[in-house]
Amino acid sequence: MPQRGRVPPTLEAVAAHAGVSRATVSRVVNGTPGVRAELRERVRHSVAALGYVPNSAARSLVTRRTGAVAVVIAEPDTRVFADPFFAQQLRGIGHRLAAHDTQLLLVLLEGRDDYDRVDRYLAGGHVDGALMLSLHAEDPLPAMAAAVGLPTVFGGRPGWSGAAGEPGPLYVDTDNRDGARQAVRHLLDRGRRRIAVITGPLDQTSAADRLDGYLDALGLTGPDPALLATGDFTAAGGERAMAELLAGSPPPDAVFAGNDLMASGALRTLRAHGLRVPADVAVVGYDDLGPAAWSDPPLTTVRQDVRHMGELMAELLLGRLGLAEGPTTPLAPVITPARLVVRDSS
Amino acid sequence: MPQRGRVPPTLEAVAAHAGVSRATVSRVVNGTPGVRAELRERVRHSVAALGYVPNSAARSLVTRRTGAVAVVIAEPDTRVFADPFFAQQLRGIGHRLAAHDTQLLLVLLEGRDDYDRVDRYLAGGHVDGALMLSLHAEDPLPAMAAAVGLPTVFGGRPGWSGAAGEPGPLYVDTDNRDGARQAVRHLLDRGRRRIAVITGPLDQTSAADRLDGYLDALGLTGPDPALLATGDFTAAGGERAMAELLAGSPPPDAVFAGNDLMASGALRTLRAHGLRVPADVAVVGYDDLGPAAWSDPPLTTVRQDVRHMGELMAELLLGRLGLAEGPTTPLAPVITPARLVVRDSS
């Protein structure tokens, strides 16, 4: 590390020390691929020996590219780590970004203080773009990105539209409303008549759209309060919501939960109450991630290809950055299909 | 966004457009705290209107600081997201970094290709330092960080020592060997005589040290092959390992698993074999994260304060960067104590 007060060594000094060209040092320091490992090692050695501090300045000034993309998840770490949805989506995103030699940086947000810091980070030119997941209606992140012109793609349909005259936001989602309709029609087909719903947070479009699909299938314009409970997309929330629904009289004979985690919580509550699934209460979830197939009984659910959605998000952003390969993906929102998967819980 | 071929607008142009000083623009663009929200908004508006692309160049050239720290986890996302250990450690790290207005960037590594890209990212001056978790013996990350002089703190005792004459690596760990000794002595105290061990990957010091503690308590210099099975710190690995151990004759009357996830997998296998815990086989885990208390039966385990370890790692790194507040933390490895927590599984 350079000492305070000492003139920092120049790129030229590193080149002379390593016995390579200035261009080679620049390529190693700027992380340009294609420098032989042996040369790269020699430059690294000289960098260390002289205490040259490489930084992104030179590269950013020339290319205005950092080679990194932030994935911002507006949820506390406890939730991000507990829901396989995020792991799957990150896997898809990371896979596509890696294929374009772009580094994924995961940024989690919890409290108000975090927003200020993340705002400054996103405004600081450290990343070429951002993918934003799990936003809630009033989330200030989109405005932050727009204010500094940071190319951004959203996971899930945003709950706002672009300002007049501006292009709308880019996003990837499934057809949540149609998926929910399929789930509830399936329960109707099985002869269920008191079908309850456990929703996610209704300030998220995924939760609101799934509730709308539930209402569509039942031909209702608004829910029966005795058959609606709000969870928070967590297993514990599903447990609590199911207990609320069972307190009603008569209890429901089926429940559509807005994701698999809440459905698994509902299964636990039903078991604790000595109720049989599906004989007494049929249960349908949403997502079809690992836990759906492993739960007891295995869960009927609505499949969305979460990993593929992550890949599509990354592709949209790469397209927006002018880095897409092959046939150009249209720069427009993508809605992927949802498909009912019937297992033993219904 | 600036158009190709157009001369990018200057900081001065933004200042003139916003009607503020150049210094104010610079502070907003560089993310320096303390600019009034109203001024910040005005500058942001001008930045967007002119298509000025702020980047980290100016700031990095002046301060040589980016305000960001990378947390690099050398595990695939499936493992990082399945083990609450990482969520807890990240929570501790994020909490301390946030208190120093430093952004945490999570970087996951899976295959060989990822290493090359992460190497270039770490060498590119995008972050002020790195925290590296869950390294395996032959991991090239430490050498990468050293080659570019990136200040680094490790989670868990590294399996290598520094080069001769250099200071050793900075790290935070628990006393894994002592924790394992406590676990196995407890099983001996309960009258168990055929105590098996399920280890994590033995190219990680945490796994190797816990095996050594097991041997210490039993007064052995090497394990009985019939009583040792290797897991991979996952629940599925624990399930498989327990099945292997039960195939031996006579089967063990106790098992010490190297973490709670493997212990929970072992519980599942024992249940599937119709064996009672602890009557037939006592089980002890390691970590004492949430799942230990919720498992059936609740798990006797060795508690390490994982979140606090994360905080200590962040503090060491901040100290190394000259950013620590208050009484200076000595820049030396920290070993936190391990403590047996007895529950129903033993």
From TrEMBL, chains A, B:
Transcription recorded as keyword: yes
The keyword Ubl conjugation belongs to this UniProt entry's keyword annotation: no
SMART domains referenced in this protein's UniProt entry, alphabetically: HTH_LACI
InterPro entries hit by this protein: HTH_LacI, LacI/GalR-like_sensor, Lambda_DNA-bd_dom_sf, Peripla_BP_I
GO molecular function annotations of the record: DNA-binding transcription factor activity; transcription cis-regulatory region binding
PANTHER family xrefs: HTH-TYPE TRANSCRIPTIONAL REGULATOR GALS, LACI-RELATED TRANSCRIPTIONAL REPRESSOR
Protein name (record): LacI family transcriptional regulator
Classification via Gene3D superfamilies: 3.40.50.2300, lambda repressor-like DNA-binding domains (1.10.260.40)
Alphabetized Pfam families for the sequence: LacI (PF00356), Peripla_BP_3 (PF13377)
UniProtKB keywords: DNA-binding, Transcription, Transcription regulation
Boundaries of every HTH lacI-type domain copy: 9-63
